[in-house]
């Protein structure tokens, strides 16, 4: 506990007490005045809702009056008597189930002329004529005729009563899940999908506009009293299935389980135009020529009569098997589309809930009355009543939910817009009870449901729905606690000070130190403590130097040779091959092979502008691209979230050419670095010593003047080591062994065995971010270096082969095909293995790297007598061009970090070999679990 060493003084001895007290009063005044303002601004507005009216509407049952006129001709019987019998039969069977949606109907039957002629609600006519008893009834508009020869007996009453029930109260329990939710507007999307037009025999176009006008427009015209329709159509030539059809007699078939996943939403572009209107899809699917004919099986495995099916609340699908067996594309004329659009019409009626005419009583439309009529007035009125009742039920449930949520959640806002929508919805509901025609009932019920839904989903209402009181405390406590604590402490200190008492601050390490000439202060006493591991790591990370920042400091400290700083990079510039960004990756690889280049510049040119370089492409990118192509089927959804990978995979699956601009720096080894022509050699050395392999030099008007590679800089240092600096430091380094310089990167080294495949090597180089791997001898001599495989070797063999079988080639055979011919033709080692000894000098290592044109050289011991033929001894490590440039940089006073880019490429060389001694070693090929048979995974598509 710390205490003040200054004696206590009286309040009068402090000349600034009054000012300090005024400051405290000012703070408290602002807090007190702001508290009501804060309270008002944060108060949730909750206007009262008409709870009683909502409950009243929910308990009130709507009644829909229906008048039925009965007429009997030819003196068969008395119409009044028949009407009375029909009324008794109706009352016995109607309304027995309270949950029945049709229990609200109030049907009144009477003889023709008995009802008031001025009534505005629905009126229907039943006419009994002389005829055969088995003659079907004739339906037209809101009347139907029944035939009888036996008069008004019980058989006629049963026949008319059953027909009346089928027309006025059709069953709904079987169609509830199938019918789409009511909407005043629908979009009808007609799609012609060819499974794969590349096989030939596809349907290239269809006269959909004429077909809709001839076969579907009459139905749409009659349904206009319920819905407004917007029609759109499309044709697709590649729409693959998600499942393989099963072989069937004379063709192929889809079983019931396969129909549930028939719609391939991922591959089919069925999305409609931007609109909030619900969409009903009607798909005409044409199977590929290799899968025709394609049928649908029922649950018992038998071929169905109709080659179509309905997707509940989504749309309908019809399968078309063209009879033509040729490979020429077809055009569907209107007469070809007639049966298909009759199917679409039935599916549309089913989705919209249009009741069918009951077949048991043989009802049919009378085409003689109205040749254009496709739906009777009975069907339309029943559909109107059903939709109206559904809307009323949904509106009542939504209003009850609003009232219930507002009562349960105290902080739910209820603003004027919500209250007005609720009141308007209640008003529309009350008008549905007074409506006398089905159209009026539907209009008011639809508007009521729309208003109730808008109130329920009001943004201001749901804004704080998931913000309970506990969240308020979590927000306000961190806000008010820092404000309240100083105010309370200062008030308490002022209270003690006004009484002339010392300030007891308890266990807080705070000392109140009054002074004569300054304001009293509060001083926090810091106690020393040990630093934690996390803080040490944070400090270490913070102290790390920024990129490319060591040259100026080295010059200031005199560590950098001034002569070196005067050299520029102009004499290192080499010509660069340029390619257009829109050419294919395969063509870019061919350019690398034809020009014998390590790297090409990818150029993009806008209209009327100069070409601009957008990236670099080399064999490492080609290897990454080919590996991505052969393993595309094993990618996870997370992998496909990468936009570039997704575009490459999509193009490969569609057998499209992939532009090379997508493959630029796919290996993450080719960042685009542009330097000016007058850039100093020291800057270039610092860039290369941190992992970059090549840079472009910018000419006039931002054009590419040329390229400089890390190998060119290494060659320059090796050739001019005695001239670069005034001191012999570079010369000494050149003639020093690798072991003494400590430049060898020790194991683990990325490697594989001769029995591994080319695909395995591609996977290792792509995953580990390296340009070469070591090939080690298996068996008792594990660790003996046999050869190396580079991305350039992969490009020289895989790309020209144009065959996926090369991916399964063993690395042993691969080395023979690639290495041996070069050794015999170019005069190099017969079995060129790119390795050096630990005792080799840096100069010899540089010569080996430049002669073999590789980025890395492996370090191995002298081979043992028991080593296999052409072996190079136990693998000890690896040395790269970047490592060598880093040695030069450090000895010239420039800070180098050769592992910087390696860390960005998943730490560069990952382990696949571990050495336990000079003669006993262990090696293993690290395989990725996604690597499989290349024949299954596919191969990169090489274009010629």
TrEMBL record:
Gene Ontology CC annotation, any one: GPI-anchor transamidase complex
Domain CBS: 666-723, 744-805, 824-894
Compositionally skewed regions (Low complexity) per UniProt: 909-918
Localization per Swiss-Prot or TrEMBL: Endoplasmic reticulum membrane
Pathway this chain belongs to: Glycolipid biosynthesis; glycosylphosphatidylinositol-anchor biosynthesis
Transmembrane segments: 21-41
InterPro entries in the cross-refs: CBS_dom, CBS_dom_sf, PtdIno-glycan_biosynth_class_S
Annotated stretches, region: Disordered: 900-944
Membrane topology of the entry: Multi-pass membrane protein
UniProt keyword terms in alphabetical order: CBS domain, Endoplasmic reticulum, Glycoprotein, GPI-anchor biosynthesis, Membrane, Transmembrane, Transmembrane helix
SUPFAM superfamilies associated with the record: CBS-domain pair (SSF54631)
Pfam families per UniProt: CBS, PIG-S
PROSITE patterns assigned to the protein according to its UniProt record, in alphabetical order: CBS
CDD domains for this protein: CBS_pair_SF
Domain of life the protein comes from: Eukaryota
Biological process according to GO: attachment of GPI anchor to protein; GPI anchor biosynthetic process
Family the entry assigns: Belongs to the PIGS family.
The name this protein goes by in its record: CBS domain-containing protein
């Amino acid at each position: 506990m710390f205490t003040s060493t200054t004696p206590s003084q009286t309040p009068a001895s402090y000349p600034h007490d009054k000012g300090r007290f005024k400051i405290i009063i000012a703070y408290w005044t602002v807090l007190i005045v702001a508290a009501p303002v804060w309270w008002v601004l944060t108060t949730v507005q909750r206007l009262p809702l008409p709870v009683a009216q909502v409950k009243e509407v929910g308990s009130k049952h709507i009644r829909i009056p229906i008048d039925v006129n009965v007429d009997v001709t030819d003196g068969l019987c008395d119409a009044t008597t028949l009407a009375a019998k029909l009324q008794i039969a109706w009352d016995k069977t109607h309304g027995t189930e309270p949950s029945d949606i049709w229990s609200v109907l109030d049907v009144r039957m009477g003889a023709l002329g008995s009802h008031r002629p001025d009534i505005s609600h629905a009126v229907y006519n039943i006419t009994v004529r002389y005829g055969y008893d088995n003659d079907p009834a004739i339906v037209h508009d809101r009347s139907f005729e029944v035939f009888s020869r036996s008069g008004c007996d019980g058989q006629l009453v049963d026949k008319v009563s059953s027909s009346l029930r089928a027309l006025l109260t059709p069953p709904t329990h079987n169609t509830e899940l199938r019918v789409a939710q009511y909407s005043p507007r629908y979009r009808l999307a007609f799609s012609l999908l060819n499974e794969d037009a590349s096989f030939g025999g596809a349907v290239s176009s269809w006269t959909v506009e004429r077909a809709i006008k001839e076969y579907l427009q009459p139905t749409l015209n009659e349904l206009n009293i319920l819905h407004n329709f917007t029609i759109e159509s499309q044709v697709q030539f590649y729409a693959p299935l998600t499942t393989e059809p099963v072989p069937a007699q004379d063709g192929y078939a889809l079983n019931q389980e396969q129909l549930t996943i028939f719609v391939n939403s991922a591959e089919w572009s069925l999305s409609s135009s931007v609109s909030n209107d619900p969409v009903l899809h009607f798909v005409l699917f044409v199977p590929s020529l290799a899968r025709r004919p394609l049928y649908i099986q029922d649950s018992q495995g038998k071929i169905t009569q109709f080659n179509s099916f309905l997707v509940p609340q989504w749309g309908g699908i019809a399968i078309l098997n063209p009879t033509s067996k040729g490979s020429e594309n077809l055009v569907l004329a209107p007469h070809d589309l007639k049966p298909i659009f009759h199917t679409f019409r039935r599916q549309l009626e089913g989705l919209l809930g249009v009741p069918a005419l009951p077949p048991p009583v043989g009802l049919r439309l009378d085409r003689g009355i109205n040749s254009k009529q496709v739906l009777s007035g009975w069907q339309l009125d029943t559909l109107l009543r059903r939709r109206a009742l559904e809307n009323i039920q949904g509106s009542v449930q939504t209003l009850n939910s609003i009232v219930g949520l507002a009562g349960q959640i105290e902080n739910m806002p209820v603003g004027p817009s919500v209250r007005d929508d609720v009141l308007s919805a209640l008003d529309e509901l009350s008008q549905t009870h007074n409506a006398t025609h089905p159209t009026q009932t539907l209009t008011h019920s639809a508007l009521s449901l729309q208003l109730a839904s808008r109130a329920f989903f009001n943004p201001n209402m749901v804004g704080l729905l998931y913000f309970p009181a506990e969240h308020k405390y979590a927000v306000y406590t961190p806000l008010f606690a820092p404000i309240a604590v100083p105010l309370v402490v200062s008030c308490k200190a002022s209270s003690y000070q006004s009484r002339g008492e010392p300030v007891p601050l308890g266990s807080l390490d705070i000392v109140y130190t009054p002074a004569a000439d300054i304001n009293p202060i509060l001083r926090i006493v810091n106690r020393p403590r040990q630093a934690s591991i996390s803080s040490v790591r944070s400090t270490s990370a913070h102290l790390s130097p920024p990129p490319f920042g060591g040259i100026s400091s080295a010059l200031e400290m005199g560590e950098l040779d001034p002569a070196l700083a005067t050299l520029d990079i102009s004499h290192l510039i080499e010509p660069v091959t340029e390619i257009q960004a829109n050419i294919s990756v395969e063509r870019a690889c061919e350019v690398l092979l034809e020009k014998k280049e390590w790297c090409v510049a990818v150029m993009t040119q806008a209209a009327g502008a100069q070409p601009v370089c957008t990236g670099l492409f080399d064999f490492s990118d080609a290897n990454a691209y080919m590996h991505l192509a052969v393993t595309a089927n094993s990618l996870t959804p997370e992998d496909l979230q990468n936009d570039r990978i997704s575009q490459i995979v999509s193009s490969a699956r569609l057998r499209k050419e992939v532009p090379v601009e997508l493959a630029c720096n796919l290996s993450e080894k080719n960042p685009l670095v542009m330097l000016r022509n007058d850039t100093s050699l020291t800057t270039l050395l610092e860039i290369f010593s941190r992992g970059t392999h090549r840079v472009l030099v910018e000419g006039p008007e931002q054009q590419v003047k040329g390229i400089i590679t890390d190998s060119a800089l290494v060659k320059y240092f090796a050739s001019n080591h005695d001239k670069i600096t005034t001191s012999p430091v570079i010369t000494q380094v050149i003639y020093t062994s690798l072991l003494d310089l400590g430049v060898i990167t020790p194991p683990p080294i990325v490697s594989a065995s001769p029995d591994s495949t080319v695909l395995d090597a591609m996977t290792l180089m792509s995953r580990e971010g390296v340009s070469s791997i070591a090939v080690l001898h298996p068996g008792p001599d594990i660790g003996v270096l046999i050869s190396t495989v580079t991305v350039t070797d992969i490009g020289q063999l895989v790309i020209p082969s144009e065959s996926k079988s090369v991916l399964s080639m063993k690395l042993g055979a691969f080395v023979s095909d690639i290495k041996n011919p070069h050794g015999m033709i170019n005069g190099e080692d017969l079995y060129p293995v790119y390795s050096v000894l630990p005792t080799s000098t840096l100069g010899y290592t540089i010569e080996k790297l430049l002669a073999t044109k590789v980025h890395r050289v492996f370090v191995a011991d002298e081979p043992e007598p028991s080593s296999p033929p052409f072996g190079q001894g136990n693998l000890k490590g690896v040395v790269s061009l970047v490592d060598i440039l880093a040695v030069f940089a450090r000895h010239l006073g420039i800070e180098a970090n050769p592992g910087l880019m390696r860390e960005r490429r998943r730490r560069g060389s990952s382990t696949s070999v571990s050495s336990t001694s000079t003669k006993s070693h262990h090696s293993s090929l690290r395989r990725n679990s996604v690597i499989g048979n290349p024949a299954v995974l596919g191969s990169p598509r090489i274009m010629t």
